[in-house]
Amino acid sequence: MTSRHHLPAGRARRGPHLVDVSPESAGWAHSSLRVLELPPGGTHTFGTGDSEWIVLPLAGGCTVGCADEFGRDTFALTGRESVFTGVSDFAYVPRDARVTIGSAGGGRFALTGARCTRRLPARHGPAASVPVELRGGGSCSRQVNNFGAAGVFECDRLIAVEVLTPGGNWSSFPPHKHDEHRPGEESVLEEIYYFEFAAHDGTPGLGYQRVFPSGHGRQGTDVLAEVRDGDVVLIPDGWHGPSMAVPGHTMYYLNVMAGPEAERAWLISDHPDHAWIRATWPDQPVDPRLPLYSAPAASPEPSSPSAPSSP
């Protein structure tokens, strides 16, 4: 087993970031993740460079200011108490821009990134628009917050989702991969897993992550890791799964994906030894602990009967 693809909390810390995974540090070409912690009243400014980014509150709220040659946008993100208490709104910022994140109350914020070619407009993603999906059945039940999924929110290359797995359950199962270019069947995507766990009576949680070689890709990735709060697992290739949450502790992970494909799509292949498990899910109830929460209802648009119609 190698450990270079498992980064325990603190190993990927750089400057103001609790986690800073770049294409250069990961040894690949596309996907990035930063986790920024701000004190009350704190700010952080960065250039987006050749990448697009989604700013996602993990704990707390913030403002996101984005400036480039086309103008300036500012978004107020309500955020949330923690990843275990609710869906968060988020902000998309494009490449070649200057971004400032500020938080009056302080908090922790994920910056999910991908190298890209197209410049899309800066936008606010409301929490009410995030599809909350219940996936699997029985002990394979988990919740997926598809805030940055392909087909849900437009990006050039970036795909990002959140997964919540109740204690004792398995997710990322059956093991699957996305390291071959097979049009319509499988896409090539580098992937980052970032973990947090719900504590119980002050006792921190933990889980386990498996990645094993597929015979494709370049690195023959092989990981069997005990993962805890703030840990990261890098998946350049290989079968990945299961992600196992120990009993009594809900597991959260943030997935960040990007790759060289012309089509932005999450196309996967299940491991042939375990693909059959999907056929058992319709006969099993979804874990009654799910959903942990749902997206909030959309706020009604203010009426303005005297306003002219849009062209």
UniProtKB/TrEMBL annotation:
Keyword DNA damage in annotation: no
Biased composition (Pro residues): 302-311
Pfam families assigned: KduI
Keyword line: Isomerase
GO function terms (MF aspect): 5-deoxy-D-glucuronate isomerase activity
Enzyme Commission number(s): 5.3.1.30
Transport in keyword set: no
Protein's recorded name: 5-deoxy-glucuronate isomerase
